[in-house]
Amino acid sequence: MKIGFIGLGVMGAPMARHLADAGHQIVTVLNRSSLPNDLKATVAASPAEVGRASEIVITMLPDTPDVERVLFGQNGVLEGISAGKLVIDMSSISPIATAGFAARIRGAGAGYLDAPVSGGEVGAKAASLTIMVGGPAAEFERARPIFEKLGKNITLIGENNGAGQTCKIANQIIVALNIEAVAEALVFASKAGCDPAKVRSALMGGFASSRVLDVHGERMIARTFAPGFRVRLHQKDLNLALESARALGVALPGTATTQQLMNACSARAGGAEADHSSLVRALEILGDHELSNGKE
C-alpha cells in the first residue's frame, strides 16, 4: 500500500520506518525534518502531491495550526486527495478543530480518523504506542492493520471525529498531574531530610507506585532532563485541555495549576525544550530546595 506520512520528527520517523519495514511504500514531504538515512521513502514536492500519490495519508505534527496548514494550506493534502482515500491525523491537537477538519476532508469524498498516540519516543521506536481513535467504525477497521504496525493498545473511542483527541487530552491531564504529584512528594521528602532516591524506591513498592514515579521520578533525582517529551508540547496539550474545558463548562483546577508550573519552567532559558519531568524545578524554586542536595 502507498502511505503518505507527513511529519518525520522524533515520533514520526520511527513510525514511518515500521510501516516501511512492513512492506508499505512511504511517500513524504520534507519541511522541518530531513529524510532519515534508514527510511526508504519517496519525497514529494508538496502535501498535495503526497495526497495524490497515496491511498492513506498520515499526519504526525506538533500542533493544530501545523495540521491545518498541511491539510488545507496552499498545495495542501486536500488539493490532492480524492474519493476513497483516508486521512489519519495522529497528532495531538484540538478536538473542536478536528471535527471541522474531518468535515472538510469528507467534503472531498475521503475518510478521516483522528488517532493521537501515547507512549513517547520509546513507544514509537518499539511499536508499542497506545492509539486512541475517533471516527467511523468502518474506517477504523480499514486502518487497523496500519495501527497494528505502530502500537499495542488500539481503541476506537467513539465514531465521532474528535473522540480520539478528547481521550488524548484526558491522558495528558493524568500524566501532567502525576508528574506534579511525584515532584511535589519528592521535594517535600527531600527537604525533610530524606534521601529522595530511597523514598522513590520505597514508594515503588506501594499503592503510590506508577510509571511516572518510576521513569520521571528517576529523572528528577538524576537531573536528566533531556527530552523525552518537551515541556512546550505538554504546555500545548494542557492549553487544549483548558480551552476544551471552557467550551464544555468543566472545571479543571489541577490542570490549571500544573499548567502554571509548566509555564514557570518554560520561562527559564531552555526550559521549554526540556523534558516535562523538569516541572520539578518550579517546585524546587517555590520550596528553595533542590532534590540533588539530598538534605536541607
Describe this structure in words.
The chain is of the alpha/beta class and 296 residues long. 51% of the residues lie in helices and 14% in strands. It contains 13 helices and 9 strands. It has a 6-stranded parallel beta sheet with strand order 3-2-1-4-5-6, sandwiched between helices. Strands 7-8-9 form a 3-stranded mixed beta sheet. Helix 8 packs across helix 12, helix 8 runs parallel beside helix 13 and helix 11 packs antiparallel against helix 12. The termini are far apart.
Provide keyphrases for this structure:
296 residues, alpha/beta, 6-stranded parallel beta sheet, 3-stranded mixed beta sheet, 9 strands, 51% helix
Q: Find the count of extended strands (DSSP E, 2+ residues).
A: 9
Q: What is the makeup of the main sheet?
A: 6 strands, parallel
Tell me the distance between the termini. Answer: 60 Å
Strand neighbour order, sheet with most strands: 3-2-1-4-5-6
Envelope shape: elongated
Let me know the average pLDDT.
95
Number of helices: 13
Strand content: 5-15%
